[in-house]
């Protein structure tokens, strides 16, 4: 069912005060570009269309924000009114248009729905009341009715004293939109076509303006610099942390937890300080994550412990594993149950069977490892000849001696033992002992040089 709702998101500005090569709207909140966040919120309202006005850094925006919307280019930033005008060809003459901003990332659907409900078929305006309204457009009322918005730079002293401000977010009747936008002039302090002048035009047309005050300032706060970006990031993170606490996750310190994506969790999960979760992460019951871990796109099954300073990416950890401290699980590491991966052990594109242990200083890459196998400290799988990557297959209950190098491609059977310090480059059949190192020589009667006594 169509509700004849259209959404225009303004995102053409440069963001000079970000001092960045990247256009402002690509800076991220919770690991997602601000403009992508606004598009996703807009989509939740099930509008008939979403149109995003871009300009500065448009190639970067198109490259990074893969969303099914109508992209419109505003080649010159002549003001917010002009920006909405560039979207006019994509708006039908019936229904209504909600205007959002690519640099106002935290607006929620409840706020927008309240605005739409208040507006009806007339004009809805989202307002705020600020102790320090400097810089914002002021809401001008007559007999209680909103009759105009005056920009800071055009305001007189009395208008500047008004604390009721324009958030910029508004909803407009499409039937009036073209007429109003085409009658805007840039005869003002900034020489811009102000969208805010539509409020006075609506009044002149006898169309009421329905103000809705935002429940909390951050819901309509824009980002102009890194200070504001950091403030909104913290608010966003605090809200996410509170939601996880309420759902039963133990966060040792909610102020030192960052979720840049989605976290699915079981019961009795404990997360220590300075943990960063990115992308899609799923953790089972009784999982403990130690301090300073970074976990991205990973699945961690029930009962596993990830000790401090571990880094996990695109990997799967089975039940009751012990990972870290200082472990690195790279893409396509797939660990079965009861696996131990200890300090300074790196696993990449390798499946590891149940109960296998690699507790110290080891690299396991491009490998298939059986169960109950043990890697001695300092084992390296040499998977790369400088051009090609080769596979290593290791069976069950194998004991790899310390300081071994396994040169791929190589197949090591079940219950094989390899001597410490071996360079294994030939296949070893089940049950054998393989030693590949120089034999020890002892020189009898050797006299060691000594300094003459003083
Ligand atoms: C605007 C409002 C002001 C309000 C404030 C809230 C106007 C004239 N003023 O002022 O009343 O209090 O927002 O933050 O609307 N943009 C374009 N193309 C343009 C101009 C702007 O895409 O040609 C985008 C910008 O990238 C920005 C947004 O629109 O994201 C707001 O524009 P900006 O010029 O920053 O307006 P403000 O001066 O903040
Ligand atoms: Ca602004």
Tell me, rounded to a whole number, the average pLDDT.
97
**N-to-C terminal Cα separation, in Å?**
101 Å
Named CATH architecture of the largest domain: Alpha-Beta Complex
**Unreliable stretches, pLDDT < 50, 5 or more residues?**
none
By CATH, the topology of the largest domain is Spore Coat Polysaccharide Biosynthesis Protein SpsA, Chain A
Hetero groups bound? uridine-diphosphate-N-acetylglucosamine, calcium ion
Q: How many individual helices? A: 8
Helix content: 10-25%
| Number of extended strands | 33
- How many separate structural domains? 2
CATH homologous superfamily identity of the largest domain: Spore Coat Polysaccharide Biosynthesis Protein SpsA, Chain A
Structural class designation: alpha/beta
Radius of gyration based on Cα positions? 31 Å
Cofactor: Mg(2+)
Region (Pyrophosphorylase): 1-226
InterPro entries: Bifunctional_GlmU, GlmU-like, GlmU_C_LbH, GMPPB_C, Hexapep, MobA-like_NTP_Trfase, Nucleotide-diphossugar_trans, Trimer_LpxA-like_sf
Region (N-acetyltransferase): 248-454
Brief descriptors of the model:
EC 2.7.7.23, binds calcium ion, magnesium, UDP N-Acetylglucosamine Acyltransferase, domain 1, Spore Coat Polysaccharide Biosynthesis Protein SpsA, Chain A, binds uridine-diphosphate-N-acetylglucosamine, 454 residues
What is the topology?
Layout: E1 5-11, E2 28-29, E3 32-33, H1 34-44, E4 49-54, H2 58-64, E5 70-73, H3 80-87, E6 96-101, H4 109-119, E7 123-129, E8 138-142, E9 145-150, H5 157-160, E10 164-173, H6 174-182, H7 198-204, E11 209-213, H8 226-246, E12 250-251, E13 257-265, E14 270-271, E15 275-283, E16 288-289, E17 294-300, E18 305-306, E19 311-317, E20 322-323, E21 327-329, E22 333-335, E23 340-352, E24 357-369, E25 374-375, E26 380-382, E27 392-394, E28 399-400, E29 405-407, E30 410-412, E31 417-418, E32 423-424, E33 433-434
Parallel strand pairs: 1-4, 1-6, 4-5, 7-11, 12-14, 13-15, 14-16, 15-17, 16-18, 17-19, 18-20, 19-21, 19-22, 20-23, 21-23, 22-23, 23-24, 24-25, 24-27, 25-28, 26-29, 27-30, 28-31, 29-32, 31-33
Antiparallel strand pairs: 2-3, 6-10, 7-10, 8-9
The chain binds uridine-diphosphate-N-acetylglucosamine and calcium ion (CA).
């Amino acid at each position: 069912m169509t509700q004849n709702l259209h959404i225009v998101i303004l995102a053409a500005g440069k963001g000079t005060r970000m001092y960045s090569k990247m256009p402002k709207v690509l800076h991220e909140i919770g690991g997602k570009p601000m403009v992508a966040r606004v598009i996703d919120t807009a989509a939740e309202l099930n509008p008939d269309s979403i149109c995003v006005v871009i300009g500065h850094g448009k190639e970067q925006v198109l490259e990074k924000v893969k969303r099914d919307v109508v992209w419109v280019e505003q080649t010159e930033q002549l003001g917010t009114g002009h920006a909405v005008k560039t979207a006019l060809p994509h708006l039908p003459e019936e229904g209504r248009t909600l205007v959002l901003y690519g640099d106002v990332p935290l607006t929620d659907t409840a706020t927008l729905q309240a605005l739409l409900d208040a507006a009806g078929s007339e004009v809805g305006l989202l307002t705020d009341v600020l102790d320090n309204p400097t810089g914002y457009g002021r809401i001008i009322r007559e007999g209680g009715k909103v009759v105009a918005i005056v920009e800071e730079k055009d305001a007189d002293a009395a208008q500047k004293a008004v604390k009721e401000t324009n958030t910029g977010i508004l909803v407009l009747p499409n039937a009036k939109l073209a007429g109003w936008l085409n009658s805007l002039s840039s005869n003002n302090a900034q020489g811009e076509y102000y969208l805010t002048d539509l409020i006075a035009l609506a009044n002149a047309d006898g169309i009421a303006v329905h103000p809705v005050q935002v429940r909390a300032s951050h819901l309509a706060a824009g980002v102009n610099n890194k200070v504001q970006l950091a403030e909104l990031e913290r608010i966003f993170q605090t809200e996410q942390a509170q939601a996880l606490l309420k759902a039963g996750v133990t966060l040792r310190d909610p102020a030192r937890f960052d979720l840049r994506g989605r976290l699915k969790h079981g019961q009795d999960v404990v997360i220590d300080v300075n943990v960063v979760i990115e992308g899609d992460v799923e953790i089972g019951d009784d999982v403990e994550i130690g301090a300073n871990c970074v976990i991205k796109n990973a699945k961690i099954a029930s009962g596993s412990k990830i000790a401090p300073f571990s880094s996990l990416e695109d990997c799967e950890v089975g039940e009751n594993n012990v990972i870290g401290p200082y472990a690195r699980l790279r893409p396509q590491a797939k660990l079965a149950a009861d696996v131990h991966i200890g300090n300074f052990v790196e696993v990449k594109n390798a499946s590891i069977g149940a109960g296998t242990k690699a507790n110290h200083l080891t690299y396991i890459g491009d490998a298939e490892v059986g169960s109950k196998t043990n890697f001695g400290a300092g084992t390296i799988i040499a998977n790369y000849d400088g051009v090609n990557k080769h596979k290593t297959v290791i069976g069950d209950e194998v004991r790899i001696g310390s300081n071994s190098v396994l040169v791929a491609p190589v197949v090591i059977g079940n219950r094989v033992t390899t001597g410490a310090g071996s360079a294994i480059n030939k296949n070893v059949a089940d049950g054998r002992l393989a030693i590949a190192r120089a034999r020890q020589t002892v020189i009898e009667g050797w006299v060691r040089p000594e300094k003459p006594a003083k």
